Amino acid sequence: MSVEEEDLGIVSKREFGLPRNLEGISVESLKEYRTALEQEIKRVDAALEHRKGAHAGAEALFKS
Question: Which domain of life is it from (predicted)?
Answer without folding.
Answer: Bacteria
